[in-house]
Amino acid sequence: MNAVIARLQAERAAQVEFIDQLLSKVESDERDLVDAETSNLSAARERIAALDAQLAPLVEFEELRADSSATMTRAIGGATTSPRSAAPNAPAADGPVYRTAGEFVLDHLRAKGGAPHLGIPADAGAAERLERAARAVAKQTTAETPGILPEPIVGQVVNLIDTNRPLLTSLGIKPLGGIPGKSFSRPKITQHTTVGKQTAEKTEIPSQALKIDPIDFTKETYGGCVNVSRQDIDWSAPGVWDILISDLANIYGKTTESVAATAFGTGVTQTVAAADDTLKGWSAALYGAAATAYAGAGELPDRIWCSVDMWAAMGSVTDAARLSFGNTPAGSGDLSRFSGDVLALPRVVVPGLAEKSVIVGSSSMFEFYEQVIGLLSAVEPSLLGVEVAYGGYVSYGFLEAKAFCKVTPPAAKPDSAPSK
């Protein structure tokens, strides 16, 4: 196959697979496309259209060339070498030259006494010619032909980044576009009115003013840029342009998730300690944390957020109980996925949280706002280059930090046998 066609077809297949993976992730999360994903999808579709436009004339040319070769083969197919061919050309200094495979076979027959019924006589010199030809054969290996050996790139570029945003997905991302200014505020009731018993007729009933104070949110900007040469864009296979844009978007998403996770984890100050690493110890601590969170905000918790190490710690305890009792009394989950629940409460594993983090609380009491700027690019004609950037605006914070409570794990490692 033409090397150019192979490269373009491989890049087209990579673009189609990228679109399939993007849509599959959106479908598995049961959500709409975010701005960054819509931008990536449009860029991939445009690149596929450009590749198809390049491939069409090249494929047509290859088909014409194949038809011409087939016609030529049919035209000369009747020409054969006579079985009574004479001996090969005069031997060269390093051995005889056999022009065809037929000449080589004839010398074998002559060396073994010939084939009189076919008109092939014996030849005493045939054995000598064959021996010298065997001595003159040079061994050909790939070490002699490095200049024509291709270096194929197989499959997609390996990407070792988890592009999911579990914390932000669990909280719900609110739109930041349309909110003017560098900061904005959310109103919060800090003092309620009061109601009490009238102590006697015509006595004054209790009275207390309603106070509403602002919660300030400050906008932050995150982004990254790369200056890439036109040659790198045009000569790379698979194309570096699409890989570069996707990577910028992925790193932007991972960075903003990590920033929010750090603020979320450090902002929760209420704690309840687990007495021991058993099912009973964890259950008591989680219920205690839920009660503390309810007391702080008047809302029952709807999530448990944990770091990866605490997913392993709680999972080993709850799954040991499942294996022991034959059911799922404490939770569900397995080693192949982060999703699951603990004590009927959805568990969200957040790799961006610090180790030993287990947080129980109400997802409505922490808010995250975002406006994705997306892709920006500028051509540098004098340098034959393109500068590309990707970024967005975010803002986040607690509406009520007391709506959350941490569970401090015990120092000991998880016990393999659950407590009954």
UniProtKB/TrEMBL annotation:
Q: Where is this protein chiefly located?
A: virion
Please list the coiled coil stretches. 19-54
Any matching Pfam family: Phage_capsid_4
**Keywords for the protein's UniProt record, in alphabetical order:** Coiled coil
Which subcellular locations apply to this protein? Virion
Record's InterPro entries? Phage_capsid
In the UniProt record, the signal sequence range is: none
SUPFAM superfamilies recorded? Major capsid protein gp5
Superkingdom field: Bacteria
Q: Does the keyword Glycoprotein apply?
A: no
Q: What is this protein called?
A: HK97 family phage major capsid protein
